[in-house]
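Recall that a protein's primary structure is simply its ordered list of amino acids. Everything else, from secondary elements to tertiary packing, is in principle encoded there. The following example makes that idea concrete.
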Amino acid sequence: MPDHATDKAKKDQDKALDEALQESFPGSDPVSLTQPAPSKPDADSKRKDKKKG
């Protein structure tokens, strides 16, 4: 028996991807649902900002 919560989550995810694709067309980079971890230089700049404030 299908899980309705899982089906709804999948449909919501598909809809979000479709909207992102439409808004980014034409684009050279693929749409991603995940945000990459900050790079080491990004992390360093965040620490410097905290020391200033």
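The mean pLDDT is 75. The radius of gyration is 18 Å.
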